[in-house]
Structures are given as structure tokens and as C-alpha cells.
Amino acid sequence: MPPAGGLRPPSEQDEEEEKIAKGQGVVFVLEDAQLEVAQVGKAYVLLNCDDHATYIKKHKKDPSLYRPDICHQALLSILDSPLNKAGKVKAIYLRTAKNVIISVNPKVRIPRTFRRFCGLMAQLLQKLSIRATNGPDKLMKVIKGPVTKYLPLDCTRLGFSWASDKKVAIHEYVRGLPDSKPVVFVVGAFAHGKIDAPWVDTNIAISEYPLSAAYVLARITNAFEQKWGIV
């Protein structure tokens, strides 16, 4: 039953849409992030191919699919950028290989060391949210999919694929994008493969060479910094 006056409390989707709708900005979706928790010994840990090689081999899994370091580096690239510090990164979403959707507050400060990052993500995937130590805000939280329901209806959605026939110079391409609506960039957070995001408007390549997710994100943020005069 709705509360008195016919108003309903804001939903998770409403909160995400309001966050993105304020002013010009950029939204990032890190696709197929390899974040998986398992019990190894007595502890629940975030699996990675270096520390848990024996466990991964025992369960006949492909070690190349356990690279959470790629997601860690990609997040640091976005969060450390002047674009984010200027408030122009409106939202960050992760979609894991297990189809878990995670919303990351652009104001969060994630651990800079990989081991501590793994501990934080293992905690998030078990407790479903991480709150700020000095307030009620959720800095990271698991949300209901699909991720598309949190994106503005009028946004431009761009996927990145080295194999795309549409190769662009990213700085020129970004200059041609309208400032009147948000832009969503979908970047793969994996070692090999291609993004599975049929909802993007178009896939582009920004180099004739394969690039790491962190470097792709650095080129995107730098292009917007130049466009908007952010130093």
C-alpha cells in the first residue's frame, strides 16, 4: 500500500536515474568483470589465477577467467581521473561473469593494493553492499539487473571492441558527441573475448591494436577532459 498522499518511496531504480540525470556527464559499464567468490579452506575469497591456482585447477576451470586485477585497474583509472574528480562521471556499473550487477559510487575510494581490493569485493558479494564509515551512504551495492533499466532513455550507448570495423580517433569522436545527453561507455573487464551487450547503439574501436581496459578508459576520460577544459 502506498504511503499517505499517494506518494511511493523512491526505488533503487529511481535513485540511480536521478543520480545520472543531473547535468552533462559520462556513465561507465564494465562488462563481464571476473569477480567470483568461493570458499577456499575456511575462508570466502575472491578468486584470482595467481593465489588460487590449485583450487581453480582442481575444479577444472580456466585460469584466464579469474582476473579481478583487470577490474581493479579499470576502476582506479576511472576514479583517479580529473573527469571524475570534476563530478562528470555520473555512474559506474559492473556486470560480473555470473551476471551480478554492482553499482559503484563515483565518490568511493577503493583500496589501491590488489589484496585489499579482493577483500573488499569478497565482502561486497557476500553482504551485498558497502557503506561509508562516516555516514549512511552505500558506496558499492549489488542491484537487480538488467543494467539497462538504470540508464537514461535518451543516452548514447557505445561499446568497445578491437574487432569493430568502425575505428575512430577517440578525441575527435568525443568532440562530436552532444553535451545535451549522457554518454554510456561499455568496456570489457576481461583478458580475452568481446563484450556481450546487444543493447549498445554501436561498437567502436579506438586503436588498431588490442588495449587493456584501463588504458581504454584512460583515453576516454582524457578525451572528455580536453573537450570540457578539465585540467
UniProtKB/TrEMBL annotation:
It holds the Pfam family EMG1. Keywords: Methyltransferase, Nucleus, Ribosome biogenesis, RNA-binding, rRNA processing, rRNA-binding, S-adenosyl-L-methionine, Transferase. It comes from the Eukaryota. It is found in: Nucleus, Nucleolus. One of its GO terms (biological process) is rRNA base methylation. One of its GO terms (cellular component) is small-subunit processome. GO terms for molecular function: rRNA (pseudouridine) methyltransferase activity; rRNA binding. InterPro entries: Alpha/beta_knot_MTases (IPR029028), Rbsml_bgen_MeTrfase_EMG1/NEP1 (IPR005304), tRNA_m1G_MTases_N (IPR029026). CDD domains: Nep1-like. Transmembrane segments: none annotated. Belongs to the class IV-like SAM-binding methyltransferase superfamily. RNA methyltransferase NEP1 family. This is Ribosomal RNA small subunit methyltransferase NEP1. It comes from Chlamydomonas leiostraca. The lineage of its organism: Eukaryota, Viridiplantae, Chlorophyta, core chlorophytes, Chlorophyceae.
